[in-house]
Each structure stands twice: as structure tokens, then as C-alpha cells.
Write a structure and sequence with these properties.
two-stranded antiparallel sheet, single chain, 3 helices, rod-shaped, 108 residues, alpha+beta
Length: 108
Amino acid sequence: MKFTKSAITMIVLIVWAIFSLGYIGWNTWNNFKLNQMRLAANQGYQQAIIDVATEVNKCANTGVPLNVGTDSAGKTTTVTIVGTSCLQKAQSDATPATTPAAATTPKK
């Protein structure tokens, strides 16, 4: 079976087109997957921040412990986050209430 020059050119072009379309499809799919992973990670970060802020604003305890990482020895570093509204509330609860009459009445 003899192939003419135009038949060989047509076969090469068809194989090249199939390979190109396959590569473009594969590349597009990988970019889509990576984009979806980035979106999911960002949504997870946002939800974590919302959850921490919600816990901090509850003022139910003295603060919210937050693990920020580990050092080279494997020791976990933890910080405690406290909302400023909770500090102001705790400060106002701790100060004794004085009546204006008792504070201004001079002793005789």
C-alpha cells in the first residue's frame, strides 16, 4: 500500500490535531482543578476566621486559645485571643458601683 505525500500530510495533521486537543483538554482540566482547590482553601480560611471571631465575641471565657504553629523542637505555640468588648465588659463588671451622693457628701 503506497501513501502519497498528501495522504501522509493528512495523517500527520490529524494525529497532531488529536494530540493538541487532548493536551488542551488535559491542561484546561488541571487548571480547573487547581482553581477549585484554591477557592476551597480560601473559603476554609475565611470560615476559620469567622469561627474564631464568633467564639471571641461570645465572652463566655477568658479567651480563645489558638495554636499558631510548632517550633523546631516540636513544641506547639499557643496564643489566647480576647475580644476588646469582653475586656471592657469585664472591667466594668469589676469596678464597684458608687452612688453619687456617697461620693460627694463631706464628713462632719
